[in-house]
Amino acid sequence: MNILSELARSKKIKYFLKGIPKDSTILEIGSGTGWVGEYFKQNGFSNQTNIDLMPPAEIIGDINDWKNLGLQKNTYDYIIAFEVVEHVDCFKSCYDLLKEGGNMLLTSPVPHLDWIMQILELLRLNQKRTSPHDNLVYFNKVPYFEKKDIKTIGFLSQWGVFTK
């Protein structure tokens, strides 16, 4: 594990995950290695689903094809997409899947500073990207959702909580 990625994980747990009620319905998009799902299992959550383009996710597929993947509209209290929205525009899909009053939790690089993230990856200080960052977006411009809390972490990463 890269040192900056490891630090970011522990901070994401404290900032995003600690306050989620255990009976919440949760969808994690882009589950990667499964560390978020593992956190939920270790902490007594039982209604969490994850999706990614590759195993070991429970659902393998593109979130924008959610209707064909068996997901239901207005189902989730929380949608988590850590380091995902820079890869794919999935805001409309997330909006459709989230319950009214539900929260979407996002992290993504600050668009104009993504070049620094690439350098950190080359130095093996940060997790290597799995696909191009073709959809970088500033969180103050996220469509559909009400912005609840947006912050910049370490001047390189955006963290946001959005509500339907």
Annotated CATH topology: Rossmann fold
Rg for CA atoms: 15 Å
Biggest pleated-sheet summary? 7 strands, mixed
CATH homologous superfamily classification: Vaccinia Virus protein VP39
H/E series: HEHEEEHEHEE
User: How would you sum up the global shape?
Assistant: globular
Order of strands in the sheet with most strands: 3-2-1-4-5-7-6
**Average pLDDT, all residues:** 95
Low-confidence stretches: none
- Number of DSSP-assigned strands: 7
End-to-end C-alpha gap: 34 Å
Number of domains: 1
Total number of helices: 4
The percent range for helix content is: 10-25%
What percent strand?
Answer: 25-35%
Structural account:
The protein has 164 residues and is an alpha/beta fold. The chain has one domain (3-163): Rossmann fold. It is 24% helix and 27% strand. It contains 4 helices and 7 strands. It has helices at 3-17, 35-42, 91-97, 114-122; strands spanning 26-29, 48-52, 59-60, 76-82, 98-109, 146-153, 157-163. Strands 3-2-1-4-5-7-6 form a 7-stranded mixed sheet. It starts with a helix and ends with a strand.
List keywords for this structure.
164 residues; alpha/beta; Rossmann fold; 4 helices; 24% helix; globular
Outline of this structure?
The protein has 164 residues and is of the alpha/beta class.
Provide the fold topology.
Layout: H1 3-17, E1 26-29, H2 35-42, E2 48-52, E3 59-60, E4 76-82, H3 91-97, E5 98-109, H4 114-122, E6 146-153, E7 157-163
